[in-house]
Amino acid sequence: MATKILTEHINVPGIETFDVYRKQGGYTAVEKALKTMTPDEIVEEVKKAGVRGRGGAGFPMGMKWSFLAKPEGVPRYLVCNADESEPGTFKDHYLMKNLPHLLIEGMIVSSFALGANKSFIYVRGELMYVIRILEKAIAEAEAKGFLGKNILGTGYDLELVVQPGGGAYICGEETALLESLEGKRGNPRNKPPFPAVKGLYQCPTVVNNVESIATTSWIVNNGGDAYAAIGIGRSTGTKLISASGHINKPGVYEIELGVPVEDFIYADEWCGGIRTGHKFKALVAGGSSVPILPANLALTLANGEKRLMSYESLSDGGFATGTMLGSGGFIVFDETSCIVRNTWNFSRFYHHESCGQCSPCREGTGWMEKVLHRIEYGHGHQQDIDLLVDVAKKIEGNTICPLGDAAAWPVASAIRHFRDEFQWHIDNPSEATQPGAVYRGEMALV
Ligand SMILES: NC(=O)c1ccc[n+]([C@@H]2O[C@H](COP(=O)([O-])OP(=O)(O)OC[C@H]3O[C@@H](n4cnc5c(N)ncnc54)[C@H](O)[C@@H]3O)[C@@H](O)[C@H]2O)c1
Ligand SMILES: Cc1cc2nc3c(=O)[nH]c(=O)nc-3n(C[C@H](O)[C@H](O)[C@H](O)COP(=O)(O)O)c2cc1C
Ligand code: SF4
């Protein structure tokens, strides 16, 4: 039976209530942390655990915590990033609606470790019902003495605030989120300074993803070494994967990092295989921002070994043959999918969501959308494929925040691996624009 750190009790009836969560061992980490540990000891356990940020960038959580500046007389904040807007990613939503107390317990333990007395959960604005679930759970925890003034008589105070998000993808970028939380338009700031030095109201702030924060109770209860013993290499612990697309069993799965991609797709325990009667064509492994891979490269590394669900294995081969684990938004495409149409769809999203501060992102996303649209709709020019590659290159690395890279990588990787399919659209416009038409040329389907 696979190790479940976050979702072990997710199917227990009533687990969203304080009483049932407590009966399953909930809030013991708060008791242990506040009554028997110092903040530095908790930070040390999180460091030992090696847990990497589950929002997508994979930055070591303990290291980020230890970078938190501690100037005298200045408040520190913990902000939970629950904006989750990456296409293909829906695991934080799943965790919050089913296990609100797991997140709240993690927020208490983490806030105590960081010396924060006021912490925020910034929730994607469209998820009003989740916001209500969280607010109800916070009120329950407060009534039982786990939040508010003098928690469990330890002298530690914590106010926990749920903030509805601004309704824009960019508000998930941590500095845009902080601007939005301060009541301003969600425009990203230049980094450095990182939020750990200058964050909310210019005070030291840790921003962590929902899933990252939710792991901390288990780490406090079981120790960092026990967490680090799960997973593979520097990809320690478990990861929630949002699985969608042409598979038999879409859903959110908690896997131990290191499972072969092939097993994750085909085993009944997880995706249950490509939908019956179809073949595997392509994979977006970590949310819409990461490079797309053709089926053969998704399953196998250049040296013939199986590709694994881990930070290192997914990125093996760099951008030539690899991708990224990102936020774990695992989107599977079968042979009925048109890569050009999908790339245009992603580009349309990034153009719409660009905040417009940097010219390469604002203009480049617009150009990519426009050129992809004309290729998809039968008006492509012979030079368009190279033009797309050129625009993507000019965006990459030249912007304030990584939304620009996130817009460039899906285009550059789709052309890298599926160039023939783009060319077929340009060469055969009348065939390519028939309803449901898909390129059927030479292609490694699995
Ligand atoms: N979950 C989603 O819905 C979603 C949506 C879009 C993008 N993403 C992910 O976002 C990722 C990019 O995020 P990012 O721009 O925040 O990445 P980043 O690498 O700049 O930062 C990652 C985290 O580490 C911290 N950090 C990095 N270096 C630091 C230092 N020297 N000192 C202190 N803190 C430091 C940052 O403050 C941040 O919290 C992408 O990889 C993508 O997968 C997720
Ligand atoms: C455009 C953009 C959107 C992002 N959206 C989210 C998000 O919705 N949730 C999230 O946790 N991180 C998101 N991130 C990453 C955050 O900036 C940040 O790295 C993360 O919240 C840090 O938490 P972690 O270290 O626990 O992953 C986004 C980044 C970018 C560039
Ligand atoms: S890269 Fe795009 S989204 Fe990010 S700050 Fe620049 S214009 Fe805004």
TrEMBL record:
What high-level taxonomic lineage is stated for the organism? Bacteria, Pseudomonadati, Bacteroidota, Cytophagia, Cytophagales
Q: What does this protein do?
A: NDH-1 shuttles electrons from NADH, via FMN and iron-sulfur (Fe-S) centers, to quinones in the respiratory chain.
Species:
Spirosoma liriopis
Q: What's the protein called, per UniProt?
A: NADH-quinone oxidoreductase subunit F
Q: Kindly report, in one word, the top-level EC class recorded for this enzyme.
A: translocase
Does the record carry DNA damage as a key word? no
Top-level taxon of origin: Bacteria
Under catalytic activity, the entry for this protein gives:
a quinone + NADH + 5 H(+)(in) = a quinol + NAD(+) + 4 H(+)(out)
* InterPro entries per the UniProt record, alphabetical: NADH-UbQ_OxRdtase_51kDa_CS, NADH-UbQ_OxRdtase_suF, Nuo51_FMN-bd, Nuo51_FMN-bd_sf, Nuop51_4Fe4S-bd, Nuop51_4Fe4S-bd_sf
Q: Short name of one Pfam family for this protein?
A: Complex1_51K
SMART domains (UniProt xref): NADH_4Fe-4S
UniProt lists the family membership as follows: Belongs to the complex I 51 kDa subunit family.
Q: Which SUPFAM superfamilies match?
A: Nqo1 FMN-binding domain-like, Nqo1 middle domain-like, Nqo1C-terminal domain-like
| Cofactor names | [4Fe-4S] cluster; FMN
Enzyme Commission numbers on file: 7.1.1.-
GO molecular-function annotation terms? oxidoreductase activity
